[in-house]
Design brief:
Elements: E1 5-9, H1 16-30, E2 36-40, H2 46-52, E3 58-62, H3 79-84, E4 89-92, H4 95-101, H5 105-118, E5 121-126, H6 130-134, H7 138-149, E6 160-163, H8 177-194, H9 197-202, E7 205-207, H10 216-220, E8 227-230, H11 237-244
Parallel strand pairs: 1-2, 1-8, 2-3, 3-4, 4-5, 5-6, 6-7
Length: about 250
């Protein structure tokens, strides 16, 4: 059985003080969770949240990592910097990084390989646009993102994959539970074909398109869905805890 993983992606929200307050509110609500609980916070919140989660079952994640150890990469953060700060997980290739900051399958691959080499646990995002879904390109897009983005990964079971249909992120639209399950089954099939069938069965694949307290139960009841990468609903302790307990 794959252990579910619920990760909150706070995006560009919460000051360090606000982050600490949110985590302290969240801790008692999720202390008995049967899934892995992760909060992926802005860089400026990392030290405050690392301190706040000590002694709890909440793991700390970042929202990006660079593939170089150091150098002239203004605005970027290295894996060593994250590790020293207490980070365990890192989101790579989120659609907003791809859309606004020029992330490609190639850079996703380089960041993923670096994260794994350094001992970070990558949450690698894949997903199609509305136009791509409506024109029947979903499977081709996802296959390319998986094959190119995860190329040369030696142990695929150390990667968490997050399926995020771009058309359902922050829009209030959600893929039906059946749609999400079917697409994640295709992702698992692609991983099986490109790595190994036994490995694919161990890889945890999240759904990340506007999962919230209202729809989490239906989505999480699907056999292929192993958790969620939660956006807006992760910014309120009560809402996030409801998703965690599903």
């Amino acid at each position: 059985m794959r252990k579910p993983i619920i990760a909150g992606n706070w995006k560009m929200n919460k000051t360090a003080a606000e982050a600490k307050e949110l985590v302290n509110e969240l801790k008692p609500l999720v202390k008995d969770a049967e899934c892995d609980v992760v909060v992926c916070v802005p860089f400026t919140d990392i030290y405050a949240v690392a301190e706040a989660v000590k002694g709890s079952n909440i793991r700390l994640g970042a929202q990006n990592v660079h593939f170089a150890d150091h150098g002239a990469f203004t605005g970027e953060i290295s894996a060593d910097m994250l590790l020293e700060a207490g980070v365990e997980y890192v989101i790579i290739g989120h659609s907003e990084r791809r859309q606004y900051f020029g992330e490609t399958d190639e850079t996703v691959n380089k960041r993923t390989l670096t994260a794994l080499a350094k001992g970070l646990k990558p949450i690698v995002c894949v997903g199609e646009s509305l136009e791509e879904r409506e024109t029947g390109k979903t499977e081709a897009v996802l296959k390319a993102q998986i094959v190119n983005g995860l190329k040369d990964v030696e142990d695929i079971t150390k990667v968490v994959v997050a399926y995020e249909p771009i058309w359902a992120i922050g829009t209030g639209k959600t893929a039906t539970a059946e749609q999400a399950n079917e697409t994640i089954a295709f992702i698992r099939k692609t991983i099986a074909e490109n790595f190994c069938p036994k490995c694919a069965e161990k890889v945890r694949i999240q759904y990340g398109g506007s999962m919230n307290a209202k729809n989490a139960h239906e989505l999480m009841s699907m056999p292929e869905i192993d958790g969620g990468l939660i956006g807006g609903a992760s910014l309120k302790a009560e809402d996030f805890s409801i998703v965690v307990k599903m």
